[in-house]
Automatic annotation (TrEMBL), chains A, B:
This is glutathione transferase. Keywords: Detoxification, Transferase. Coiled coil: none annotated. GO terms for molecular function: glutathione transferase activity. Belongs to the GST superfamily. Theta family. Signal peptide: none annotated. It is an enzyme of class 2 (transferase). PANTHER family: GLUTATHIONE S-TRANSFERASE T1-RELATED. It comes from the Eukaryota. Residues 89-232 form the GST C-terminal domain. It catalyses: RX + glutathione = an S-substituted glutathione + a halide anion + H(+). Residues 1-82 form the GST N-terminal domain.
């Protein structure tokens, strides 16, 4: 039975798993679960993931959720996956776990909360929260500095000094890609001080093309839509919500 | 060269790593880094962990931080560690990764933020924040429900239906132990609705005694100190801060 990947391409960990499968030529079926339509809250999806989050996979009788756990599992069970994604070497593997664990409370928390509270909340039926955005901005800025000064400190182009990407590069870059939906000036303000981070994002894109771009199409479309809405100075939240939800 | 574990026993992930080493008879040296004395912010400790967080380990030339990454590494490199802590079986291992990943954004976030913002902040030189506490409480309550309805759903006494504890049991139970420093009524209010969680905490303690109690001594002392301060109705924050810091 073919691997099933339950995903919403508007979710950054979903995108990481989809790109990973495509780059590694894993034979899988993408089952779209639309968060904006609350499809992740259905009883049907609860059978797949009782936490009602995306992504999740079903591989035969085996069910799994949490994107990092999924990426590790897929790296181990599909023999075609190249070693650099999740090296067999215990020391390299330990360092990748360290990045992935760090990610949860740092980059993910900062980026996701910032984008939600400055931009996406209305599309999810929530109010924008400037105080939460300000706190998330601090976490995001600190995380970007640490990526540059710690994780990208090695000689290679990727995290931990690698010459080829690992699952950590894919997870973190997909997280950062959501900054695309911000106002362009704001996105530049956040990323401009971090030249090495920008180069690393480009290198990770290049290493996973054309799948990276294909899976991110939905995000680029949302970006254009949001830019149009901004330039039309539509500040009415309910209108923004309707227009965004129809796109996502 | 002996494994070095840099830890502050007031930090719950530090306690998990220390208990793990002791239960598995790993020969190690505990290097105490006192967070209340800001020893984790020294240049010396930055050489060990550039993120300036605890715990961290040095094993020969190899340095590692993030407690989950450390627990996995130790399980893999020390042959005396029994399989149940981090099973070689890929499916069991994947499920443990799933619990550990979930933990970061759920139980850890809820419990640590709640305890900080209701109780420990003054000892860290920070103000108490009732709004942050209320938000953390929601995450904590939801996490406890999910532990009971999802992770403890199996037939065994431990997470994922295990008959013996894994590194996930140890990490999550150590996180929950910090609730001990709360006002006793508040701690009961939080845990009382979750009988299976309470039983699982007891089972994990029993499976790791006497090391569990020994490593938690500092927490039990802090609990007594805080209870005394409460019963003396000392509400002055600066006084509480001085008295707590001297204990920790």
């Amino acid at each position: 039975m073919k691997l099933k990947v339950y995903a919403d391409r508007m979710s950054q960990p979903s995108r990481a798993v989809l790109i990973f499968c495509k780059v590694n030529r894993i034979d899988f079926e993408e089952v779209r679960v639309d968060i904006s339509k609350r499809q992740h809250l259905t009883l049907e999806f609860k059978e797949i993931n009782p936490m009602r989050k995306l992504p999740a996979i079903v591989d035969g009788r085996f069910k799994l959720f949490e994107s990092h756990a999924i990426l590790i599992y897929l790296s181990c069970v599909f023999p075609g996956v190249a070693d650099h994604w999740y090296p067999a070497d215990l020391f390299k593997r330990a360092k990748i776990h360290s990045v992935l664990d760090w990610h949860h409370s740092n980059l993910r928390r900062g980026a996701a909360e910032y984008v939600k509270n400055t931009t996406l909340a209305p599309a999810l039926g929530l109010p924008l929260d400037p105080q939460a955005a300000a706190e998330a901005e601090k976490v995001l800025f600190s995380s970007l500095s640490k990526i540059e000064s710690v994780w990208l400190k090695g000689s290679g182009r990727f995290l931990l000094g690698g010459n080829q990407p690992s699952i950590a590069d894919l997870s973190l870059v997909c997280e950062l890609m959501q900054l695309e939906v911000l106002d362009e000036k704001d996105c530049s303000r956040i990323l401009a001080p971090h030249k090495n981070v920008q180069q690393w994002i480009e290198d990770t894109k290049n290493a996973t093309r054309p799948h990276f771009d294909e899976v991110h199409q939905i995000l680029f479309k949302a970006k254009v839509k949001l830019q149009k809405l901004r330039s039309m100075s539509i500040n009415n939240e309910s209108s923004l919500q309707t227009k965004l939800a129809s796109k996502m």
